[in-house]
């Protein structure tokens, strides 16, 4: 599974960014049968889940991003999006797109999000 992540950048605190993860070679039926998520890793810290949903449509958010981040998916575009609003300096990290199919984990290249004060 190939995952192409994009959308990171530098933003001031309180600003917004939208991250996109595209799975261009995935067929529609497989797309809906895949668990997708966004993780992030700050310097010196472990990689943690930020937002995810499974093939049943259940969505989970890390507590610190609830009410600020929204994860969504578009099967026509084979894309999973993370809309981030009211960004805080502690959101600074490398963000990774994740997919799981049949128990196998796939990762996209990270995209850096830097939130300045």
What does this structure look like?
This protein is mainly beta. The protein has one helix and eleven strands; from the N terminus they run E-E-E-H-E-E-E-E-E-E-E-E. Strands 2, 4, 5, 6, 9, 10 and 11 form a seven-stranded mixed sheet that branches. Strand 4 (35-41) and strand 5 form a beta hairpin.
Compile the SSE list and pairings:
Elements (H helix, E strand, L loop, with lengths): L3 E3 L2 E4 L4 E6 L5 H5 L2 E7 L6 E6 L5 E3 L7 E6 L4 E6 L8 E9 L2 E4 L3 E6 L1
Parallel strand pairs: 2-11
Antiparallel strand pairs: 1-3, 3-8, 4-5, 4-9, 5-6, 7-8, 9-10, 9-11
Overall, the morphology is globular
If you average the pLDDT, what whole number results? 94
The helix content, as a percent range, equals: under 10%
Rg result: 14 Å
Which structural class should the secondary elements be placed in?
A: mainly beta
Number of DSSP-assigned strands = 11
Strand content: over 45%
> What is the CA-CA span between the terminal residues?
37 Å
The largest sheet, given as strand count, sense and whether it forms a barrel, is:
7 strands, mixed
Low-confidence region ranges: none
Q: Topology as H/E string?
A: EEEHEEEEEEEE
> Count of helical segments?
1
Question: In short, what is this structure?
Answer:
4% of the residues lie in helices and 51% in strands. With 117 residues, it is mainly beta.
Keywords:
7-stranded mixed beta sheet; single chain; 1 helix; 4-stranded antiparallel beta sheet; mainly beta; 117 residues; 4% helix; globular
